[in-house]
Amino acid sequence: MNSDIETVVSECVICEKFKKANSKEPLKPHTVPYRPFEKIGVDIMDFSNVSYLVVIDYYSKWIEIAELANKCANEVITKLKTVFSRFGVPNTVISDNIPFNSYIYKNFSNEWHFNYALISPHYSPSNGMVERAVGIAKSIMRKAKEDKRDYLVGLMEYRNTPISGLDLSPAQMMFNRRLKTKLPILNKLLNAELFNNIREKLIERQNTQKLHYDKTAHPLPELNKERMLEY
Predict the structure, then answer these.
(1) Pick the residue with more confidence: 50 or 129?
(2) Where is the Integrase catalytic domain (predicted)?
(3) How far apart are CA 96 and CA 161, in angstroms?
(4) In what order do the strands lie in the sheet with 115-118?
């Protein structure tokens, strides 16, 4: 009886129209990169009436924040070139934002020899890394504004803070060393070190996150071609 009711409800157009949004599907994580800045995510955020470009490295979780004069493709490209000059050109740039789908941006990716991947802005799990980066950036700026200090100090402290589940900071994964900040630190702790098995640790961390996420996720049923779809 229950299965019959479920079938009727699932095929009812009116029920479909007023039912809750789709439950979340099992997580499909991105492939973990092999090195820093191989794959990055980019997004534009607004804070206190100012626009910023936010960039995150999928390997090290290193975050860059750059103030934008406007949201035009040329302005975004100028900021990206500055970031690329520091870390090199990535293999892949991931985004869900409009300027990255422009003709100018496509030419930029061809000239600088990187691939870009556009994802749906309506499916946030596919760009969760960038969404978290934007959240971190806004949190840093809010705290800096409240404390009346430079947000770049907070950004530097984030880069020097170990990532949960890895015990390595973005700086250590990016440069194999800690950053010297305004906080006191022994000089010997600033020396470069060789960290092994970082990718394996990243994969293990990602698998753990997927396991927890999928506990409340379910595959969506396939669409029935014979059903009437409403737009």
Answers:
(1) 50
(2) 32-227
(3) 28
(4) 63-68, 50-57, 39-47, 92-95, 115-118
